[in-house]
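Researcher: Can you fold this with adenosine-5'-diphosphate in place?
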Amino acid sequence: MIVDLRQVTKTYADQVQALRGVDLAVEGGELLAIVGPSGSGKSTMLHLIGTLDRPTTGTVRIAGYDVAELSDRELSALRGRTLGFVFQQFHLAPGVSALDNVADGLLYTGTPLRVRRERAAAALERVGLGHRLAHRPNQLSGGEQQRVAVARAVAGDPPLLLADEPTGNLDSSAGAEVLGVLRDLHAAGTTIAIITHDAEIAEWCPRQVRVRDGQIVDDHGDGTSAPAEITKGART
Ligand code: ADP
């Protein structure tokens, strides 16, 4: 099991109960949507799964490690090995080539620049951007920029990719392009959780986890199945 949340609660300092007893188990190789309205607790769940925050009560296990038992240094090592993140904003460095945006994401590995660039080129190839290595973000379309961000997230081959509204800033055809890349990564074995408020994207995912008022109210589908066809309108 790559993600195992048991009876997880999160109460913020101002006493807002963002999560109220969440159980969630994700097996390696699943593609799932965590879907719910704004304020339902999706981002809080993403932060806990991403080990960026710790629960108030309950346990969070990622790749078998109980997050509560790890030091900050051990947590960031776990994050580096296990997790890739994609956000609604692409967060690419302006004026830096696609190749180096991805290669810089591997700085934590401590490998030489030449090796990082080789891996970056391979990752860009995987997202269909092998012909755009030298392009800077402002020379790329929105869909291409988000594919660079996906390449950066997966260049180190993490088993788990967390995507927070990954098509939220894209029009429908660029969104479909990004979903196509996620579909290919899933087919190749990466576990992917997409956080979204968009019903259409959720429908596209083979497993759907619905969150409301800090609780999971529905969880169905087989995350290891192939996703549905990408419809032109699929976007947030
Ligand atoms: P979603 O991602 O579904 O919009 P969030 O997880 O961001 O939901 O928020 C869940 C609830 O927790 C909301 O009521 C929100 O206002 C609150 N919340 C989120 N982050 C914080 C924070 N850092 N401090 C206080 N309250 C927060």
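Model: Folded with adenosine-5'-diphosphate in place. The mean pLDDT is 95.
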